[in-house]
Known about the structure:
Elements: H1 15-26, H2 36-43, H3 47-56, H4 62-72, H5 86-99, H6 102-114, E1 118-121, H7 127-139, E2 145-147, H8 150-156, E3 165-170, H9 175-187, E4 191-196, E5 210-213, E6 218-219, E7 224-225, H10 228-249
Parallel strand pairs: 1-2, 1-3, 3-4, 4-5
Antiparallel strand pairs: 6-7
Helix pairs in contact: 4-5, 6-10, 7-10
Amino acid sequence: MKSFLDTVDVNNLTSSEQIIYQYFKDHLNNIVYLSLSDICKELYVSNATVIRFSQKLGFKGFNELKFQLKNELNLTNKSTNAWDTIPHRTSILKDFIDNIDDKIIEQICSEIKNHKSIYIYGRNMSSLPAKYLQSMLNTMDIPCIYIDWIDFLSALSKSFPDNAVLFIFTNYGDKSIYEPIVKQCHERHVKIIWISSTDLDSSLLSSNDIYISTHEAKLETPPLLTKLTSFLLVQFIIEYLRHNIDKQGA
Length: 250
């Protein structure tokens, strides 16, 4: 049976990736039953190497690649009900969990704890995780201000307190919209924490910013980006903060 692996240009793979590729080809019928750690132990490679290999083939990570192979081997349910999308969404969430950098979560939480002026921006679908973060921070007695109008954010960017923290939840990070706002923020030494569903234009980022791409899954009908991964990221932040607040109170 033909697989998407047959379309891969092996010449673009590193020597380690070629070993992984050949292993996948040789064990096509069994690979969907193996975990990431199983494969790494078998090939004596790191988790990061297999994840990079998966991403080079166009997937978010190993779990989404494995989901694609399951589909090709007809191991997933082919009915047309709404539950068909759940395994794919789950694979993307698993890849996000595998790839998240604990140090970045720790750094974000440190910024929250060490700054008195915290602002959170998000509109449309991005308002959902933004409002959730604001609600949870307020519940933990960490004051913050939620912004849902881009014009209001633009006006505030000229008067933010120095060294404030600004969370920006966005789908696409449109450069034409955010560039003047970012310029004002950087001039006032505002630390921006970007949580974007898709990759950002690097010109929007300063070396002082924190940036996480959540690679949200896209829904074709209606055409929008889900926010499952953004909610998961917010939950990681909240759990880390809560754990450290509990430790300090003990």
